[in-house]
Amino acid sequence: AESGVKDLHEICSQIATHSVYRTIVEQLKLDEINGGNEVAWFLYDDKDRMIDHSVYERNQWQWTENLYGKYLGRSEDAIRFKRGDIAEIAVELPDGSYIAEPVMVTGSPSTIDFMWEVNKVKKNNDDISVCPGNEYYSLLRISGGWISVSPRDIRTPILPVPDQLTEMLKWQFTTKYGVQD
Prior knowledge:
By secondary structure, this protein is of the alpha+beta class. The chain has helices at residues 2-11, 28-34, 112-119, 163-176, and strands at 17-22, 40-45, 50-53, 86-92, 98-107, 137-141, 146-149. 22% of the residues lie in helices and 23% in strands.
């Protein structure tokens, strides 16, 4: 998959980032029914350098049997965006094309230390908190709406974000929602 993307980059130079997914072969047919069940993902930039990856392998069929599939946190240096950063997400238009939308990061994935504290009192693996939302970024959109996205779906802006949009996001975050840093 990685070499195929490198070949694609030689043909089309407008690819900003791309993802590669690892899936269990036996579940490929099942994935068509369930809407996907990748166990790991890898995010690459336009120079084919890995810029992020899943920090755990998940398999929904094995969550309660062992630590495999449990989100236990990201190290601080594996969290690419911090609260207040301006990033972008891809938004699909009705015609099937995509545009980049600037967003403000309002919450980052949980750290290893945080997850350790959350799970410190648990007695066995079955009790470990596996909330998938712990790995997600919380984002404030220009429209004022809030969303959560996986680290694989958030990017550094390709083009400079206009100051007016940045100021509008900051205003919404601090004034409209009363959040102070």
